[in-house]
Design brief:
The protein is mainly α. It folds into two domains: 77 residues, no CATH class; 166 residues, Leucine-rich Repeat Variant, CATH 1.25.10. Helix content is 60%, strand content 0%. Helix 8 runs antiparallel to helix 9 and helix 15 packs antiparallel against helix 16. It is flat and about 75 Å long.
Length: 326
């Protein structure tokens, strides 16, 4: 929810440009009080026991360290009871927000209700903001929830008949409908609707003369997320004449889309080859190094030899740094 313009402590005037006045005589007492508190802290921290106690307090003020749960992260019974009284738009917003925050039961509710939403959602305002946030989640299940909401909002049934309808537009026609068809086919294939057929349709345009069409081919492949998409994405990163397409391909391999962590790791050997390939310009090699870092979690300089040494020393057996290991 957007923060209202008058949000803040009760009675606070957020439109005021000057601080609240201090009554005469109180300023000096505040200075004395601060000096006393500072002296007390300095004395207290001089002892090991007091220092250890302060460290325990200080750690709760830090943003560093492992995630600290605020609750059990379970969709409450109260919220579930309220869902049936909400509009489809309100249901989708609540459940997608809970999915983003990994509340148990949120995705179950989306699965149970999404078939009732087609034609009843508007992908704008807060729901669109939640969609974008979910689509960039570090959890593929949350990304899948976002796609389900998007398909429902645009009244796209997850059936082979929908692919039949979209396929002609994906091959020919005006740029707008064609780009939309490529994107939709990628999403549908990624949700299990004839993924091999979806890949064939997308790959038919991977070298199209229209850069915007190639862009949406890459995006479609990214969200299709099958093993078959790795090689063409690597090909687009290495060979596409457009820097925009090469960058999107690098992002698709590194973080965006529906490829799993395991699938992304399979691209590393080829990315290592790209890292010192003289056929690539400096900017593209930079995207290669960035992709390597995003996939592996390794903070290694942009140096092909250093990356190869790291990879060979681990004999290819390594795993990215995860939240739990930080």
């Amino acid at each position: 929810m957007d923060t209202p313009s008058n949000a803040g402590p009760a009675g606070a005037n957020l439109n005021s440009s000057s601080p609240a006045p201090i009554e005469p005589g109180k300023s000096s007492w505040r200075v004395v009080w601060l000096v006393v508190v500072a002296a007390f802290l300095a004395l207290a921290l001089a002892t090991p026991a007091a220092h250890a106690a302060w460290q325990q307090v200080a750690q709760f003020l830090s943003l560093l360290g492992k995630p600290v749960p605020a609750s059990a992260s379970v969709l409450s019974e109260h919220e579930i009871e309220q869902l049936d009284r909400m509009s489809p738009q309100a249901q989708a917003m609540l459940l997608l927000e809970r999915s983003i925050n990994h509340y148990k039961g949120a995705n179950d509710q989306i699965v149970a209700r999404v078939q009732q939403w087609p034609g009843k959602l508007k992908m704008d305002g807060r729901l669109n903001n939640l969609f974008v946030t979910a689509l960039n989640s570090d959890d593929l299940r949350v990304r899948a929830a976002a796609i389900e909401v998007d398909l429902a909002a645009r009244n796209l049934e997850k059936t082979s008949a929908t692919l039949d309808r979209l396929e002609p537009d994906a091959y020919t026609g005006e740029q707008g409908p064609r780009a939309n068809a490529l994107w939709d086919i990628g999403l549908l294939g990624g949700r299990g609707i004839e993924p091999q057929r979806a890949a064939q349709i997308l790959l038919a345009s991977v070298r199209d003369s229209n850069v915007n069409i190639r862009y949406w081919v890459v995006e479609g492949l990214s969200y299709l997320g099958t093993d078959e998409t790795i090689a063409p994405l690597l090909g687009a990163l290495h060979d596409d004449p457009s820097p925009m397409i090469r960058e999107r391909a690098a992002c698709a391999l590194a973080q965006s889309g529906m490829l799993s962590e395991k699938q992304r790791r399979t691209a590393v050997p080829k990315l290592l080859d790209f890292a010192d390939d003289p056929a690539l310009d400096g900017q593209t090699r930079l995207w290669v190094f960035q992709a390597l870092r995003d996939i592996t979690g390794q903070n290694i300089p942009h140096d092909a030899a250093a990356w190869r040494n790291w990879y060979s020393s681990n004999d290819g057996r390594w795993y990215p740094v995860t939240h739990d290991s930080q």
